[in-house]
Design brief:
Length: about 625
């Protein structure tokens, strides 16, 4: 494959960016020309941010899997598409060539059809990081079913909420998943979830851990048995379903400032073009390179930069089942060494945690294959940036700090590795096609450099969110109503004297814990489920490794007799309701919360206290009971 739209130098970048602003339709048509379309578009873009109503490549017909698989078979059929490294380093790795991946996707697409899945049906996928997860995702896309992948760390309750919201009819899961020293009983979690999900008619269970599971007659079937049946049928070919450009490709749930996660919807053509374009450019991927993104496919990073971006580019994508510290903190470096990885894309939280183990686990690992490094999901502090640059990249690999969101579908602001400048802690410049603006609280654009504001995007891009599943109004109010005619990201941002962007963090009630997005309201709802809890308020605070930690102020019913036990209990409750990732790091029992006379909790004060800024709480005179603040200050953890 060659990538005619891969930008090669800074002049290329500047020209492309200009072109994308003066003639966006021409710019994107040039990129889109390099895909396989059953039918080309009538119109590149129609948009209205008020509704919002955004359509890219209208009239075009395609199937994303023909772009990820079929079109590579002639040239790359024997090249590795997926390299899979298991959790246990003593287990054998697996390599799937493009031909093999194609065959497996078609087989599983047949399985889905045999189990009654049709175009437009929603399929929930709850699996560990094994190749079958990527196969399941692609098989859905092949037959036009809409996948909703739920991260393997979410609880039964969280899965049930997502299945109900999407009215999914089929679930694909595993008996269990290996993650580090843990063994997660996925099927048993699904069994609990499905008690509240009458829409689900079938469950397909893939064998991984051999954890004993119960199979419900008429509902549950084994992946392997179903494949055998397809083989018996002689592996009938599965022509890819012809999809309209704006047909839904997938739903991915993400947290916001309310208690209920929302289903971000991405559509076929725009998402495909954007995931591919950003992958090829940001990482400057060269054919034949080995690319390793350490994310989980349960998050958008895995969708765009393990599956769709790399495969549509004919790349070799490495999928890792385990965690960075198992069996020891050298695991990433062992993998880089073993497979001669060229491009490594990971999260600042992983870098910070590995940094803590010193250079022992890095020394004597051959990292000389690395050419490019990337980070994603949260701000990276300078110390971690330099460690990554010097100790991992040995000073010669560009680092791309990529800012984007579930809603944006792909990378938005980031250095193009080795092509545009980098600066520690900065996402730097927008990719061509992206028009960021900073606005004040009234929505007035803040021009010039050396300024701070709310980060918005003023023109559509192909990978953007189209709607929130089943509730378009929610999409409008969350993203398009705060500031007129702009997409609001929810992030605060600095544009420095050189015009480089630096994300300063969320300006809403959303936390970023180890790169995972968690709504404070969600955590509060979960804490309040505990029988002994009257009320709670959750805020974030700076955490050395996780970026942000979760600090919960809790009013408990009776005087807490054994505070440590009650804290453990509350943590358990949160893990059960949301998942272990949302467990508070600190719980402080209080007798009241700082509230305004109208009963609104003043989070600003709690945030300051959690951050340790006790002397700088600002005006507390409007509080109903100012004395409560003194008590909370005294009890700070
Ligand atoms: C939020 C989006 C992007 C895919 C993974 C997370 C924060 C993301 C960066 C970065 C500073 C970042 C933002 C954003 N964020 N990347 N490079 N620097 N902050 O996707 O779960 O949708 O979260 O993550 O706050 O809004 P997500």
């Amino acid at each position: 494959m060659s990538y005619p739209y891969q930008l090669k130098n800074f002049e290329d970048y500047q020209q492309a960016w200009q072109h994308s602003v003066t003639d966006p339709e021409g710019f994107w048509a040039n990129v889109a020309d390099h895909f396989y379309w059953r039918r080309k578009w009538d119109k590149v873009l129609e948009w209205d941010f008020k509704q919002p109503d955004v359509k890219w490549f209208t009239g075009a017909k395609l199937n994303i899997t023909e772009n990820c698989l079929d079109r590579h078979l002639g040239t790359l059929g024997h090249q590795p598409a997926i390299i899979w490294e298991p959790n246990d380093p003593d287990e054998r790795h697996r390599i799937l060539t493009y031909r093999e991946l194609y065959t497996k996707v078609c087989q599983f697409a047949n399985v889905l059809k045999n189990n009654g899945v049709k175009k437009g049906d929603r399929v929930c996928i709850y699996m560990g990081m094994i190749p079958e997860l990527a196969i399941a995702v692609l098989a859905c896309a092949r037959i036009g079913a809409i996948h909703s992948v739920v991260f393997g760390g979410f609880s039964a309750q969280s899965i049930a909420d997502r299945i109900q919201d999407a009215q999914a009819t089929l679930v694909i899961t595993c008996d269990g998943a290996f993650r580090g020293s843990k063994d997660i009983p996925l099927k048993s979690v699904i069994d609990d979830a499905l008690m509240a999900c009458p829409s689900v008619k079938k469950v397909i269970v893939c064998t991984r851990t051999r954890t004993p599971v119960s199979m419900l007659k008429g509902r549950d079937v084994w992946w392997e048995d179903e494949i055998k049946q397809v083989e018996t049928m002689g592996n009938p070919p599965v022509p890819a379903e012809e999809m309209d450009a704006e047909d839904m490709l997938f739903i991915l749930y993400t947290s916001g400032s309310t208690g209920k996660p929302k289903g971000v919807v991405h559509t076929c053509a725009g998402y495909m073009v954007y995931a591919n374009y950003t992958f090829i450019n940001t990482f400057q991927y060269k054919p034949g390179q080995v690319y390793f993104c350490t994310a989980d496919i349960g998050w958008i990073t895995g969708h765009s930069y393990i599956v769709y971006g790399p495969l549509s580019a004919g790349a070799t994508t490495l999928m890792f089942e385990g965690v960075p510290t198992y069996p020891d903190a050298g695991r990433f470096w062992d993998i880089v060494d073993k497979f001669r990885v060229n491009v490594l894309y990971t999260a600042p939280t992983a870098i910070r945690s590995l940094m803590g183990f010193g250079l022992g686990p890095v020394n004597h690992k051959d990292l000389s294959s690395l050419t490019t490094l990337g980070t994603v999901g949260e701000p990276i502090n300078e110390e971690a940036w330099h460690w990554y640059k010097d100790q991992i990249g040995k000073g010669h690999c560009p680092i791309t700090d990529t800012w984007w969101q579930t809603e944006t579908g792909g990378i938005m602001i980031a250095p193009i590795a080795g092509v545009t400048p980098e600066k520690p802690g900065y996402a730097t410049l927008p990719l061509p096609g992206i028009q960021p603006v900073l606005v004040d609280e009234n929505g007035k654009e803040i021009e010039g450099n050396g300024v701070n504001g709310n980060l918005c995007i003023k023109f559509p891009w192909p990978g953007m969110i189209r709607t929130t599943y089943g509730d378009h109004e929610r999409c409008r109010t969350t993203y398009f109503a705060t500031f007129e005619n702009l997409y609001f990201t929810g992030d605060g941002c600095l544009r420095d004297e050189d015009g480089y962007y630096r994300i300063t963090g969320r300006v809403d009630d959303v936390l970023n814990v180890s790169g995972h997005r968690i709504g404070t309201a969600e955590v509060e709802n979960a804490i309040n489920m505990h029988a002994g809890v009257v009320e709670s308020a959750v805020v974030g605070y700076p955490h050395e490794i996780k970026g942000q930690g979760i600090y919960a102020f809790v009013i408990s019913e009776m005087h807490v007799k054994d505070p440590d036990l009650t804290k453990k209990d509350i943590m358990q409750t949160v893990a059960r309701i949301i998942g272990p990732i949302a467990k508070p790091d600190k719980i402080q029992f209080v007798s009241g919360l700082p509230k305004t006379r109208s009963g609104k909790i003043m989070r600003r004060i709690l945030r300051k206290i959690a951050e340790g800024e006790l002397d700088n709480l600002g005006d507390t005179s409007t509080l109903l009971d100012p004395a409560v603040v003194e008590e909370i200050k005294r009890g700070k953890l």
